[in-house]
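DM from R.C. (forwarded with permission)

"hey, sorry to bug you on a friday — could you get me a structure for this? deadline for the figure draft is monday and I only need the backbone to look sensible"
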Amino acid sequence: MGRKLLWASLVLAPVTFLLRYVVHAGDVTLFAVAAVALVPLAWLIGEATEHAGEHTGPGIGGFLNASFGNAPELIIALFAVSERLPNVVRASLMGSVVSNLLLVLGVALLVGPSGRSRIDRRSLIGQLGLVLAATLLFLVPSVPGWSGNPERHSLAVTTAPVAAVLLVLYAAVTARGLRRHRRLHEESGARAGEGWTLPTALGVLAVATAATAFVSEILVHSLHAFTEAAGLSEFFTAAVVVAIVGNAAEHGGAAVIAHRGNLRLATEIAVSSSAQVALFVTGAVALLSWVVKPALPLSFRPLELAAMGASALAVGFVVRDGHARRGEGSFLLGLYAFAVVGFLLAGDR
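My reply, with the result:
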């Protein structure tokens, strides 16, 4: 019954388009419908990723989910850059890293199998190391931004080489990790079940991701009205609401896959997605902003840097023994709630 309802609710995506471009519904209505429409799309991406993971193994499956799932995040950020909302871009990117590590992983552990479940400690620690490395690199343009205008052009110039290093580092480490995952999958002798073929799974992933991107864009354009109606700060809305919406695929996909018992793939989705946002998405947005205009300085506030670094360290503590437990999911969710309160109290820059 639940699966039938999710399949049927995929119609909400075209309904959202009709409300925006034909009916011209109000922004608050668009926000509500778009948010609900993202739920079945996230489930579909998770479904397709699990079928793809049967052919590629959990490591590459997690990478695929992160790549397809982070496409909306990249698109949302570039839209915000073009609309001259640099604080929204930085807050949403930071919030995406934090929510993937604490919220997505926390939910996956909580709804996953009871007892101790084995996870790929080496892969997860490597991805967390990338997040910490990115946080340290962000200090280069961030520290000068703590005094004076954080949007000044000189900081954007300083950001460019940092963004390039982020992309090169991510490409090098990810290529090595994917080769390892492929070798482990081949050595395991695992064979795909009777599910979807790999081309079918990848095709569904592409279509669902495209629809998610369009729905996310509609939701972002209606966020201003929602923010005013709810009385929230721009920073909080971007760090929490936009970040969660932009990562709807990872949230839904990891939860569904963990609930079915595949916690190894679910943890790969959450942590690899966080690393991809911290290095690839952030680096790509910073460099593409020179084309979209205006150029984006990666001048994060101390609170934002502390949130990313602390989240990576907390998850490292959880996965250090190569096992995961439901109680650790509650611990991560508690940390995320603490971070959300901090974002609420911080206010705008």
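R.C.: lifesaver. The radius of gyration is 19 Å.
me: no worries. The chain has a mean pLDDT of 85.
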